[in-house]
Amino acid sequence: LQGYASEMDNPSLVHLIPSALQNKKEILFGNLPEIYDFHNIFLKEIEHCIENPELLARCFLKRKEDLQIYEKYCQNKPRSEALWRQCGDSIFFQECQRKLDHKLSLDAYLLKPVQRITKYQLLLKEMLKCSKNSEGTAELEEALATVLDIIKSVNDSMHQVAITGYEGDVSELGKLLMQGSFNVWTDHKKGHNKVKDLARFKPMQRHLFLYTKMLLFCKKREENTDSHEKTASYSFKNSLKMSTVGITENVKGDNKKFEIWYNGREEVYIIQASSVELKNTWISEIRKVLT
């Protein structure tokens, strides 16, 4: 923040800033200032636990809401990376790096918050190993569950950002509960029977997003970016309102399949998960929404 972000306002360096970066500080750095301010407080609280490690879990539980700032940071990350690919090799950044005498360039540091949130879970897991049935174990378990929940939210929201072609506003669909890839067969009562027979055999690959108000079916597309990394996007295919769907938990002949149907079985979607465990997780989440 001091070596790069502040330098973007330094009059003596302004002429070196590439035009693609003009007024894009917020995109490049996301809410890093917010994370920095939070850590000034959080670090002191964690340092208090050096003498009393059993208090560590409480720090995490107390800051449960604040830790959501990571989700915001990660959601912005694809935009930040795209901007960095455009102007990361500019003289401005080289000059900042030279002044700081850093071996690594800025993008390595912009990745730190994403890595940090996963390091918390490792820390808490290690703590749990050392504290079987002692004071504070239950709190440690709760703190770990909190951090895992945040990582799941971050992961889900990273996928959600890549949905394309949906006409509405995904932020109005309620909380994103689950997302993942499935084999899907459809069976429509309307229309010609021929369609129905064809649909039986070859499944479609669909990426499902389950919100409290809606279930979205998307098709995953992988695109190669300039740097040959694959970035996934999900093109919207159709949606079902959760207030109008029903569910059949077991499908004859395959314990990894379940059905979601619409409008009194006018449309039926047979969904096959990659494991029974995954199927059961989805069913329990859908049940919660329906009840």
Automatic annotation (TrEMBL):
Gene Ontology MF terms in the entry: guanyl-nucleotide exchange factor activity
Coiled-coil intervals: none
Gene3D superfamilies registered for this protein in UniProt: Dbl homology (DH) domain, Pleckstrin-homology domain (PH domain)/Phosphotyrosine-binding domain (PTB)
InterPro entries xref list: DBL_dom_sf (IPR035899), DH_dom (IPR000219), GDS_CDC24_CS (IPR001331), PH-like_dom_sf (IPR011993), PH_domain (IPR001849), RhoGEF_Guanine_NuclExch_SF (IPR051336), SOS1_NGEF_PH (IPR055251)
Phosphoprotein among keywords: yes
Gene Ontology process terms (BP): intracellular signal transduction
Database matches in CDD domains: RhoGEF (cd00160)
UniProt keyword list: Guanine-nucleotide releasing factor, Phosphoprotein
GO cellular component, one term: cytoplasm
Limits of the PH domain: 169-291
Domain DH: 1-157
Pfam families: RhoGEF (PF00621), SOS1_NGEF_PH (PF22697)
Record protein name field: Guanine nucleotide exchange factor DBS
